[in-house]
Amino acid sequence: MADRQPPVRYIDRTRQQYEALGYESYAWVHESDPPAFTPLRKPIAESRLGLVASGGVYAAGQTAFTFKDDTTYRAIPTDVDTAELRATHFAYDLTDARADINCVFPLDGLRGLVVEGAVGELAPAFLTCMGGIYSARRVREELAPAIVQRCLDDGVEALLLVPV
Amino acid sequence: MSSARDITAAVNPPRATFLDWPLGHTSGRPGEASLNRTILRAALEAFGRIDLPGTIVDLGVPWADDDDWKDRVMRPRPKVAGDAAVVDDRVERWPTPQYQSGADATAAAARHAGQDCAVCAGIDY
Fold this sequence. Notes:
- The complex is a heterodimer of chains A (about 160) and B (about 120).
- By secondary structure, chain A is α/β, with parallel strands linked by helices.
- Chain A is about 25% helix and about 15% strand.
- Chain A has helices at about 10-20, 95-100, 105-115, 135-155; strands at about 50-55, 55-60, 75, 85, 120, 125-130, 160.
- In chain A, the strands form 2 sheets. In chain A, strands 1, 3, 5, 6 and 7 form a 5-stranded mixed beta sheet that branches. A two-stranded antiparallel sheet of chain A has the order 2-4.
- The longest helix of chain A has 18 residues, at about 135-155.
- The radius of gyration of chain A is 18 Å and the shape is globular.
- Chain B is α+β, with helices and mostly antiparallel strands.
- In chain B, helix 2 (about 35-50) links the parallel strand 1 (about 15-20) and strand 2.
- Chain B is extended.
- The model of chain B has no long low-confidence stretch (mean pLDDT about 90).
- At the A-B interface, helix 1, strand 3, helix 2, helix 3 and helix 4 of A face helix 1, helix 2, helix 3 and strand 3 of B.
- Strand 3 of chain A pairs antiparallel with strand 3 of chain B, so a sheet runs across the interface.
C-alpha cells in the first residue's frame, strides 16, 4: 500500500520558512465566527454560475497582475478562447497552469458541465485576481466588495471559488 | 475548491471541497479534461449537498501513487550543507505587471493606448 501522508500544513510550513529566514511570522486570517450560509435557491443545474479564481489569470490584451498586493481583478469573458489565457503568480509553480489553464481556471470543464446539464449557465464573465495579498484588510475593503458587486451585476446565483 | 486544507479551515468558508494536490492544481491536472470534469462535477454536487456551514468535503482523488511530493513543499534548504543559513527561494514581489511574455505586454499596451479595455477593472491608466 502506498505511503500516504496527511494534508500539507501550509500555515506551519510558512511559519517555519519565515523563522528560518529570520522574518516575523505571517498573520494568517482565522475566522472563528460561523460562516454566513445562504441556501441555494435552486439547483446548480438551473443556476447561473460565476467563478472567482486567485491564480493570477489574465487574457492576452489585459494588463497582467503585479506581485505586490494587487487588489484589482480581471473579468474574463466566458466565451474566450482558453488559448488566450495566461497565468502569472509568485507563490506557486506556474508550469502546469501555463500548459493548461484549466489547472487553476476550470473554464473548459464548466462549459462541458453546461452542455451535459449539470450547470444551468455560466456568468458572462469569470473573475480573476491575485492570491498572496498580504493585507487581509485590503482584500476585505477593496477587492472583495468589488468582486461581490460585479457578481451581483452579472446576476450570479452560485459562485465557485478557485484559490491557489 | 481548495488544495490547502488548513488555510481553508482557518478562513472557514460556508462550503468547501478539498483536493489533496500540490498548489497550482486547484481545479485540475494539465491535459486531463475528463478527470478535471469529474472533479468539477463532484465539487458542484457537494455545493448542492452541504447544509452544515463550514463543511469541507474531501474529494478523495490522490495526486500520485505516493505522497512524496509533500516532503518537498516549503522546506528550507541550507545554503551550505550543515550551515544554519537557508536559501531564500521566494519570488521577488515586483510592484509592476508581471506578464507571461513580452508579446502580452505589447498587446496590453496597444489595447490600453486606445482606452478600449472594458475588462481590466480597478486599474489607473
